[in-house]
Protein: Dihydroorotase
Organism: Falsirhodobacter algicola
Amino acid sequence: MTQTLSLRRPDDWHLHLRDGAMLNAVLPETARHFARAIIMPNLVPPVVTAADAAAYRDRIMAALPPGMTFEPLMTLYLTEGTDPADVRAAAQSGLVKAVKLYPAGATTNSHGGVRDLEKVRPVLETMAEIGLPLCIHGEVTTPEVDIFDREAVFIDTVLDPLRRRTPGLRVVMEHITTEEGVAYARAGGDDLGATITTHHLVINRNHLLVGGIRPHYYCLPVAKRERHRLALRAAATSGEARFFLGTDSAPHMDAAKETGCGCAGCFTATNTLSILAEVFEQDGALDRLEAFASLNGPAFYRLPPNEARTTLTRGAPVAYPSHIETGDGTVTVFDPGFPLHWTVA
Ligand SMILES: NC(=O)N[C@@H](CC(=O)O)C(=O)O
Ligand SMILES: [Zn+2]
Ligand SMILES: [Zn+2]
């Protein structure tokens, strides 16, 4: 008897679609399986204003192949020059669903991010007032802090003080990678959410470094020790409302990753749902995949869950392409390192 799993159609609460030829190539990979996604604004130049977001939204919709449906949920890239009135109008029109905080220098295309949080205080106060979520790449950039400690230090020295100073501010801790991140998210109220990526449920830092350096496992925040991966697995498979899927699928050309100074990002859109089903099955939690991938995210963002349903079927191992072609070069698909038995029907 074939085993099947039916769930409401999933959404991706953290996604990089890029632009141009890359957008054309990666958008169908997400739209095939996801109804909606929170679209990251770290383009070059970044998506800073409501007008930028409207134009990017139009480019995404123009890139969607005929016959596919997909709703991009737009975000604004917070800068020290962001105008609170523009943010308010963008949220109230329904165009923008969140604002993204990149500490300057923390990750890909973050140099235009925030250096001094005091400078964005009026924007944060406006967001707290209207309930617009702030999505945070939570790593300090201080050179003295070890890269493996940057998330935990951020929570103590930046995130917690920020939340205490800004009552009502709704925050998503993006792509958490540590026990400390899990514990902090769990201790929060319903003004706090945390996304977890597919790849951080699968790899630890040994996968990245043992036996040779694996550029396609390099992402930010960098994969941590095994005990952190296990904490993320427990959180994701718990069904708890605080935790939801944000794949952080972040395509870079192979030429930009397989080089002396490779870019950070894992491209997981193609096989994410198969990997997640395998992970949840391994942990005896298939019945909680729907909470993680389809229910907890919409609840946090105060959106209805999708009415459409997705059926996953278990069978012989499925082979996914090892890479996809884009007009600018190839992009390697994340390899989980174990067979995948679940496919989307
Ligand atoms: N996660 C990554 O390693 N890379 C992301 C940026 C980010 O989400 O931090 C990217 O845009 O490439
Ligand atoms: Zn990030
Ligand atoms: Zn990201």
